[in-house]
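seq as requested:
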Amino acid sequence: MPSPAQASALLRLASASPRRRELLASIGLTAEIAPVNIDETPYPDEPPVEYVLRLARAKARAGAVDTQLPTLGSDTAVVLDGRILGKPIDQAHARQMLEALSGRRHQVMTAVAVSGGQGLLSLCVTTQVTLRAITSREIEAYWATGEPIDKAGGYAIQGRAAIFVEHLEGSYSAVVGLPLYETSLLLQRQGISCWPA
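struct tokens:
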């Protein structure tokens, strides 16, 4: 039996990300949570934009299999010099990524796909993020918080890593995991409004 929240859900979120669920809730949308298992390995020489779009579309399709609800899939990649930085596999990997990002500008690409009555609609939002120089001691202390473990690029802008962000050009919510302005446009095209009727 679905929970009251699931019963009142306007859409399905094909993700286990608490950040995406919270972002949707912040604009008044309750989502039925239905994580999907998708192979996230990039194809050889696959451009980052095509990579995140492919994963977002695959998640939306997989999540929509057994529901009539519009289904949202999303994927975020941190990109430095055209190279995708994934989630750290260990402390050394996190340190390597943060040292590479330190004092540099990089891109955060978040793709969103929504399946529904209008078919599969998708887009990608790219945000430019500049981190200040980060010391080795700060990197060690940041790792000790546990925050980088499951984050693309090894940092969470909505957490303690916010103090490392010198400049941001684009969508803050996209860096967190879901570009709310663009997502709301896709949802409207699928018949979901952020405002009660």
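The longest helix spans residues 48-63.
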